[in-house]
Amino acid sequence: MKLKAIHSVPEQDWKAFVNDDKKAFARLYDCYFDGLFAYGARFSRNKEQVKECIQEMFLKLWRNRNNLQHVEHVEHYLMVSLRNIIFDKLSYKTQFVFEELEEDSYDFDLNFAPENKIINNEEQKLLYEYFRVAFKVLTPRQREIIYLRYLKEMDYEKVASIMNITVKAAYKLTARSLETLRDNMKDLPASRLLLLLPALLLLFPFS
């Protein structure tokens, strides 16, 4: 599930924005605010703090617009920027790239929505509860990489960039996360888990 600009192309709006187009800047803000808030809220339950971080990020972008380079993937760039600001605010940020899998030093919450309309029969409710329990076993870093890889549909290079890890570590962390899920959902074939994963992740609320 990816964010998409409405009535405009993000890359074109970005190009116009760095050339002082306020309307293009406003479109970028409107297009990405909700998705950025959904992502940022995973790190902090203080919604106002998350909103302040997003606003600070956009203010910095506007102030530095004439020094910004071409951005090929706007959503990816904004998520990296927001994550860095949140980590600075919450004193989570480390000064090195994780080559191997390190101990989690931050939270990444995903709250399920049991009233979700796509759960419309007992079998789905059972699967939902089964997945909810298994997902809670994952570490924050494992939950974040599953969110980015399978819900945001980002490739490993983008995931690694956002999480400040190497591509090799991103592959390893994803594999370990899926292995943990499979171990806790042993009655569900691995192939079916991969097919259902995006749909199951849609059970998370985004506000």
Portion in beta strands: under 5%
Tell me the number of helical segments per DSSP (H or I, 4 or more residues long).
9
Using the coordinates shown, work out and report the CATH topology of the largest domain.
Rna Polymerase Sigma Factor, Chain: A
Can you write the helix and strand succession as a string? HHHHHHHHH
User: Pairing-aware structural class of the strands and helices?
Assistant: mainly alpha
Counted up, domains total 2
Low-confidence stretches: 1-7, 93-103, 114-119
CATH superfamily of the largest domain: RNA polymerase sigma factor, region 2, helix turn helix motif
Q: How many strands in all?
A: 0
CATH class of the largest domain: Mainly Alpha
The biggest sheet amounts to: none
Rounded average pLDDT: 77
Task: Give keywords.
single chain; 207 residues; mainly alpha; Arc Repressor Mutant, subunit A
Structure description:
The protein is an all-alpha fold. It folds into two domains: 80 residues, Rna Polymerase Sigma Factor, Chain: A; 80 residues, Orthogonal Bundle (Arc Repressor Mutant, subunit A). It has nine helices and no strands. α2 runs antiparallel to α3 and α7 crosses α8. The longest helix is centred in the N-terminal third of the chain and has 19 residues. The N terminus is likely disordered.
